[in-house]
Amino acid sequence: QVQLVESGGGLVQPGGSLRLSCAASRIIFGISTMAWYRQAPGKERELVARITSGGTTNYADSVKGRFTISRDNARRMVYLQMNSLKPEDTAVYYCNNDNAWGQGTQVTVSS
Questions:
Q1: CB of 48 within 8 A of CB of 36?
Q2: Rounded mean pLDDT of 16-26?
Q3: Residue 38 in contact with residue 67, Cβ under 8 Å?
Q4: 81 - beta bridge partners?
Q5: 41-52: b or e for each residue (b if 16 or more CB lie within 10 Å)?
Q6: pLDDT score of 88
Q7: pLDDT in tens, 50-108
Q8: Measured distance CA(82)–CA(20) in Å, rounded
Q9: What span, in angstroms and rounded, lies between the C-alpha atoms of 51 and 73?
Q10: CB-hemisphere CA count at 13 Å for 67?
Q11: DSSP of the chain
Q12: Interatomic CA distance for residues 59 and 72, integer angstroms
């Protein structure tokens, strides 16, 4: 079964940056659409960004212009560069492929 392992979360001040990474295994990575979701306390899980096998991306309106999703097919990795972070970005961030989910990584934006 597909395995997704996230890393890179942490505590950052408002306006700061973080880069999340997701390592994928047991997947035909090169033809897979990959995505990042997040879930804040008391809220539903929401799509943050998605990238297709061809590199087409789409973003939630709340992160457009601040977050960038990318992928490295050779390394079977997907990334989420997060800039100009806001307290409302605080959430557990999950890597996703179809029905497979990683364990999540906590991102906390606070002064």
A1: yes
A2: 95
A3: no
A4: 19, 68
A5: eeeeeeebbbbe
A6: 97
A7: 999 999 999 999 999 999 999 999 999 999 999 999 999 999 999 999 889 999 999 99
A8: 8
A9: 12
A10: 28
A11: --EEEEE--EEE-TT--EEEEEEEESS-GGG--EEEEEE-TTS--EEEEEE-TT--EEE-TTTTTTEEEEEETTTTEEEEEE-S--GGG-EEEEEEETTEE---EEEEE--
A12: 19
Beta bridge partners of 24: 4
Q: Provide the β-strand partners of residue 21.
A: 7, 79
Specify the pLDDT at position 58.
97
Q: Which amino acid is at 3?
A: Q
Residue with tokens 């179809």: 98
